[in-house]
Amino acid sequence: MTTIRTLLLSLAISFGAFSTPSTAETRPPVGQTALKDGQVLRGHFEQDRFLKGFEAPLKTAGSFTLVAGGGLIWRAETPFAVTTVMSPAGLVQEVDGKKTMSLASTRIPFMSKLYSMLSGALIGNWSDLESTFKIARSGDAKKWELRFTPIAANDPAMPIEAIVVSGRRLAEDVVVIRSNGDRDHLRFSGQSLETASPTSDELNLLAMVKQL
Q: What is the domain-level CATH number for residue 70?
């Protein structure tokens, strides 16, 4: 279960840093706040993970797809092909086209809430994080920055020291600073909100989760 929790925490850190809060106090003047039925949000990511003891960062690149009412698809393409699909029903992971993990939400009670948080963050809804993090905003509609710091700063169970998100219409740059000194730097590009049906490949991936 420790490995599962580590995986889900990593997903939360990655997915929970794409967009902007939905509250009136912290919402940028421009940005998406809802994904409507029939819409699909797609984009690309690059991630540099800086770990103590390593001179060079560990690099990952890939793409993501969020389907309204369907689920979230996160594809790491380099250096290894790893696809993670999540919905309220659970989580499925594939490596090189072979299923390596399958977790129904009934086995992990917090899975549905985690999915709600991750998919909400992609479209600008950070409400599930506001009970855990303080949010400070700077900048304007042309270029904004949000800094998230834990409300309980001395909590030994909180592995994050700060999350800094910046962007324009949507988030473009995210830095996750961990309490142990490690940090992740994520860059997002090519984000588009489309009114279109998912591809056949995307539908097949989402169907795997529905069958859990």
A: 2.50.20.10
